[in-house]
């Protein structure tokens, strides 16, 4: 996993033998064990790392009015019971232009107003709730509904 992992050598003297993983990947999920030997004494601990990913299909950039699929997946082992999606902090009703099915959200005709923070929340049969956020960017026209601009002859127009 080098060079994405590090241990703070200075913290070891204080009894902190934490492992830091930068840019966590799906394949990093699993059980980690740390063992520290000091003189004749051995201390150990185990930590399970769970990973959640949000992916976009087709990949960025998303073009206005072209269908897209946001998928939310987790390494959690229990059965998925419920998926909820939030856009800019508000719960998204899954009807009409938004269709949710087993961890995925389909947006049939994305608009500029659909850009921003999307959060999926997964609830499992063991009542574990896991969430992740994706910042959606959409390419499109964000101007007046009637794109007619008037300019005086001889002047500049934007």
UniProtKB/TrEMBL annotation:
Similarity-based family: Belongs to the LAG3 family.
Superkingdom per UniProt: Eukaryota
Predominant location: membrane
Residue stretches making up the Ig-like domain: 50-131
Membrane-spanning residues: none
GO process terms (BP): adaptive immune response; interleukin-15-mediated signaling pathway; positive regulation of ERK1 and ERK2 cascade; T cell activation
Record keywords, A-Z: Adaptive immunity, Cell membrane, Disulfide bond, Glycoprotein, Immunity, Immunoglobulin domain, Membrane, Repeat, Secreted, Signal, Transmembrane, Transmembrane helix
Record's function text: May function as a ligand for MHC class II (MHC-II) on antigen-presenting cells (APC), promoting APC activation/maturation and driving Th1 immune response. Lymphocyte activation gene 3 protein: Inhibitory receptor on antigen activated T-cells. Delivers inhibitory signals upon binding to ligands, such as FGL1. FGL1 constitutes a major ligand of LAG3 and is responsible for LAG3 T-cell inhibitory function. Following TCR engagement, LAG3 associates with CD3-TCR in the immunological synapse and directly inhibits T-cell activation. May inhibit antigen-specific T-cell activation in synergy with PDCD1/PD-1, possibly by acting as a coreceptor for PDCD1/PD-1.
UniProt keyword annotation of Chloroplast present: no
Quaternary structure and partners: Interacts with MHC class II (MHC-II); selectively recognizes stable complexes of peptide and MHC-II. Interacts with FGL1 (via the Fibrinogen C-terminal domain).
The name this protein goes by in its record: Lymphocyte activation gene 3 protein
Membrane topology, record value: Single-pass type I membrane protein
One Gene Ontology cellular component annotation held by this UniProt entry: membrane raft
Molecular function terms, GO-annotated: MHC class II protein binding; protein tyrosine kinase binding
Compartments (UniProt record): Cell membrane; Secreted
């Amino acid at each position: 996993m080098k060079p994405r992992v590090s241990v703070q050598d200075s913290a070891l003297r204080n009894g902190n033998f934490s492992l830091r993983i930068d840019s966590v990947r799906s394949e990093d999920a699993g059980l980690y064990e740390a063992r520290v030997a000091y003189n004749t004494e051995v201390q150990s601990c185990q930590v399970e790392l769970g990973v959640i990913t949000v992916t976009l299909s087709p990949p960025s950039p998303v073009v206005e009015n072209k269908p897209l699929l946001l998928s939310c997946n987790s390494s959690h082992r229990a059965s998925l019971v419920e998926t909820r999606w939030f856009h800019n902090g508000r719960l998204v009703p899954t009807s009409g232009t938004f269709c949710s099915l087993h961890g995925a959200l389909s947006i049939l005709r994305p608009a500029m107003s659909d850009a921003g923070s999307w959060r999926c929340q997964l609830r499992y049969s063991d009542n574990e709730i896991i969430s992740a956020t994706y910042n959606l960017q959409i390419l499109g026209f964000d101007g007046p509904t009637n794109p007619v601009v008037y300019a005086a002859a001889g002047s500049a127009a934007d």
